[in-house]
Amino acid sequence: MADGISSRQQQILDLLLESKAGLCIDEIAAALGISRNAVQQHLNKLERDGYVTLGSLNKTAGRPVRSFVLTEAGFNSFPKQYAWFSELILASLKEKMGHEAFLEYLHQLGLSLSQSLLPRFEGLTIEKKIEELLKVMDGLGFLTRSREDPAEQQRSIEAFNCVYHDLANKYEEICEFDRTLIATLLNREIDHTECMSKGGAKCCFRVRKKPEQ
After folding, report:
1. Alpha-carbon distance 91 to 156, whole Å?
2. Exposure string (b/e) for 194-211, b if CB count within 10 Å is 16 or more?
3. pLDDT 10s digits, 152-162
4. Which of 96, 93, 76, 77 has its CA nearest to residue 85?
5. pTM of the model
6. pLDDT digit string (tens) for 41-61?
7. Is the dihedral of CA 114, 120, 121, 123 positive or negative?
8. Which of 115, 102, 107 has its CA nearest to residue 170?
9. Closest CA relative to residue 111, chosen from 34, 31, 187
């Protein structure tokens, strides 16, 4: 059950999941054995939270009635097994490819994603590139910040949420995706100095100074 959804509201979501065409208030009330007013109140809450929306207008023997359907958020409120399926794929890939090829595969995956993002980084200073990178990573859910070491005159990128923590604990090669993405977008070499999958409090990527020409 999603946060903030009562047991009765979950029952309404269950009914709508089974009826992709949608249900009207009377149909939901009859199925649950509660009043139309109670159903309307629950639907108002679910609609405000973005789980349901108005569907088609159905013509009956009486007046036309409006149905309610699940939104994308409504569908996503039901349990998913993305991590389990991802682990199944990763385990199969690593078994077939071996460590080195699997590492290279994740490197290429990081390169592939970075190519679609590079236009956002063209012409920026390294400081602005880091700011833009933090936006990209936060958009992916990493919860980041940058930190400067005045003594070393180097910047580090710190991530406090590993978006695939359980998978990274089992497949250390996954971190190559992050390293490649960061290094490519910044056009700088980086050092992965701390990693949550190895017991660190955060993931830390130190940006190397640009080599002197």
Report:
1. 32
2. bbbbeeeebbbbbbeeee
3. 778 999 999 98
4. 93
5. 0.69
6. 999 999 999 999 988 776 655
7. positive
8. 102
9. 187
